[in-house]
Design a protein that fits this description.
Helix content: 10-25%
Strand content: 25-35%
Mean pLDDT: 91
Radius of gyration: 17 Å
Shape: elongated
Number of strands: 8
Strand order of the largest sheet: 2-3-1-4
Distance between the termini: 24 Å
Low-confidence stretches: none
Order of helices and strands: EHEEHEEHEEHE
């Protein structure tokens, strides 16, 4: 099973080896999509945890017990087709190629299942046709 989460670390837990502990103690793999972690600051990780459902639940309980805020990621990328000018700038920053220009029509296509919600496409759109649903 997989769960996509945002983890928010208070300053005092920023130095904890979280991904190591998830793998070693709970047999849970952490795929980090985006991270903003700096010494003496609140840190944030966008991760996808994968493993057995019971181990995932135990790992999430452990994170919360260590004062790490855990929230499920329910938002998605939304493209306003009426505003999009199909310039393709977003395709150059998309690490999963979920945004592509169709070779025949030269129109932007979005493959939602490939999107990892890194949000790199948002600032790249000159007409702000890309947003999130939350």
């Amino acid at each position: 099973m997989k769960k996509r989460l945002t983890l928010t670390f208070p300053k005092r837990t920023i130095h904890m080896p979280i991904t190591y502990r998830l793998a070693k103690d709970f047999n849970v793999a952490a795929n980090i999509f985006r991270a903003h972690v700096a010494p003496d600051q609140v840190g944030k990780l966008l991760v996808e945890l994968s493993g057995d459902i019971d181990q995932l639940d135990e790992a999430i309980d452990w994170l919360r017990a260590n004062q790490i805020e855990v929230s499920l990621v329910n938002r998605e990328i939304v493209i306003d087709q009426d505003s999009c000018v199909h310039c393709g700038l977003c395709t150059g920053v998309c690490p999963t190629e979920s945004l592509q220009l169709d070779a025949q029509t030269h129109k932007l296509t979005f493959t939602r299942s490939r999107c990892i919600m890194c949000e790199q496409c948002l600032p790249s759109c000159p007409v702000q046709a890309i947003s999130t649903n939350l």
